[in-house]
Amino acid sequence: MCSGSVKPWRAAAALLCLGLLVAVCLPPVRADAVERSRRGELKRVLILHSFGREFRPWSEYARDIKAELERKSPWPLDIQEHALLSARFNNPGPDAPFVEYLHSLYQGALPDIVLCIGAPAARFAQRYRAKLFPDTPLIHAVVEHRLVDRANLSSNDVVVAIRNDFLVAFENILQVLPDTKSVAVVVGASPLEKFWLEEVKRELKPLDQKIELVWYSDLAFDDILKRAANLPPHTALFWGLMSVDAAGVVHESDIALRSLHAVANAPIFSYAEPFFGDSTVGGPMHTIAETSSRTVSAAIGILGGAKPESISYEPIGFAAPRYDSRELQRWGISESRLPPGSAILFREPNIWQRYRWQMLMIVAIFLVQAGLISGLLHERRRRRFAEVESRQRLAELAHANRYSAVSEFTTSVAHELNQPLGSILTNAETAELILSTSSPDISEVRQILADIRRDDHRASEVIRRLRSILRKTPFEVKDIELNETVRETLGLVKAVADGRHIALTYVPVLADLHVRGDPVQLQQVILNLIINAMDAVSDANADKREVSVSTVRAGNQAEIRITDTGPGIAATDLAKVFDPFFTTKPQGMGMGLAIVKTIVEAHHGEIAAANHAAGGALFTIRLPIAQ
Ligand code: ADP
């Protein structure tokens, strides 16, 4: 047996006990209430329920009607509620005890109005009104128009009827789930439910060819649950009413519906708002608000003196369709299938709505972070640009500086070129003389030609070195062997040193010194330092004119040392020699050492100037050894 079910005889006994209890414990009418009622202040309202006070859908209508009545009534209200219950049993007992109970309760102080909720209550009131409240106006609320007992309506009755349209309800199922092949209809076995079963069958005739209809009216509710849990695909359930099942078990309607929802493997449809919200998919349905507002306005009108016969309403049909978003999702029903004008309720709050503040914080942090990153990237790009630009400038400046350096020793270079060219000329003339003899010495001619070739090499080597140092190249980093670079530079200034009678010596470290750098710019560094050193020793005695270059490996650094035997650098100038435009020479520019320092630093190295204890200047360059 379902946990929500009650045996009919037990419920009937409980009802009687309750009636007796109320009759014994409550004074039928309080004297002050009667007095106020006589003065027209207090209005006495009797609400008569058909199926018990907690039986959906009527319970929801009654709750809303009562609340709205209390809210809108200009008079204080004394609302009494009674439930028939008998409509829920297949074989209810006689009405007489309940009629007697009501009669004794209201004898002498009749209600000002009786609100009947549902058809059974309305019929009961019509049947016993002569005995219970002969002149009291009756409102028949939430009664399907087919169940109104029109033959027994009096001028004291107002009908607020509803109209069930099962064809519309089933067409809604086919609209949202067009693949539906079969619909199982859940309906109980009480006389009222049997009436509706026949009505539904009759109304759905037009759908005979479209879908198979399965009726659960002859099943116990437990069996209905088992079937609903194992329905074939493309089946839907339609919730009619479950008051009493085929096994005679009475059910609280909403408990039964929730049990069905918990096990069903197919979507459940229905046609009344009170079933909507935790179990059914939705569609066109009766809404509580319209019935409630009509009932309350009729009641207030009558309590205020209006004649009931002057109030008449057309039955209320289904309102615009509503759907439960959770059920739509659960059964994969696309919102595009819903009819136009549908309302979708119970939307699950999305992550934005659920974690609004947290998400805003995350977005804010993300934006700040993105801003910082793009700022840093922009800054980095600008730095890169600046670096490239400064290297470009450096390359141009260095090139100009090389020109001026080289121009200083053009005479020596010319001299150096003249030497091999003069030798070539002399050797060529000698060869001609030998060849003009009757028996020329061919081996000697061969020797002369070899000398010519060697001199030509010497001359072209001078030109190659010059061209290489004067080349205008962008800053270019490659792997270079430092000893070789130093040797090449010395080759360039050797002739100058010779011309100035300066002893230029080179002591290379025995191992290879690989660094990463621009070979032309590093040559320029060495060249500038040697030229400065040669300038420094030029005024000294010929026997003291020495410039010495050496390379050393110190840990993971390569060192180039350039010393001379000149006067050295004044102590006060030591800190300034690398400053641009610092010079002590009458024709000096003061740019040589500034460029040297910039080039060395661009190679991640460092340069230092110092004086030897024995006299003369010492310049030390340190460059990182290539990995
Ligand atoms: P410039 O040679 O045009 O003067 P530099 O920047 O090459 O420009 O040199 C700056 C100054 O540093 C020189 O004028 C000189 O006073 C000093 N200096 C450079 N090298 C030496 C050296 N080997 N001995 C003495 N003084 C030097």
Structural commentary:
There is one protein chain. With 627 residues, this protein is of the alpha/beta class. It folds into four domains: 31-164 and 286-317, Response regulator (Rossmann fold, 3-Layer(aba) Sandwich); 166-285 and 318-348, 3-Layer(aba) Sandwich (Rossmann fold), CATH 3.40.50; 408-471; 476-627, Heat Shock Protein 90 (2-Layer Sandwich). The protein is built from 18 helices and 21 strands. It has helices spanning 8-25, 31-38, 58-72, 96-106, 119-132, 166-176, 191-203, 221-229, 253-263, 288-303, 325-330, 351-354, 356-408, 410-436, 442-470, 482-499, 519-537, 592-602; strands spanning 5-6, 43-49, 77-83, 113-117, 138-144, 157-162, 182-187, 212-215, 235-241, 250-251, 268-269, 282-285, 319-324, 343-345, 478-481, 503-507, 514-517, 546-554, 557-564, 606-611, 617-624. It has a five-stranded parallel β-sheet with strand order 3-2-4-5-6, sandwiched between helices. A five-stranded mixed β-sheet has the order 16-18-19-21-20. Strand 18 (546-554) and strand 19 form a beta hairpin. The radius of gyration is 57 Å and the shape is rod-shaped. The model is unreliable at 1-30 (pLDDT under 50). It binds adenosine-5'-diphosphate.
Gist of the model:
The chain has 18 helices and 21 strands.
Properties at a glance:
single chain, 627 residues, Rossmann fold, 4 domains, five-stranded parallel beta sheet, five-stranded mixed beta sheet, 21 strands, 47% helix, rod-shaped, disordered N terminus, binds adenosine-5'-diphosphate, HisK_dim/P_sf
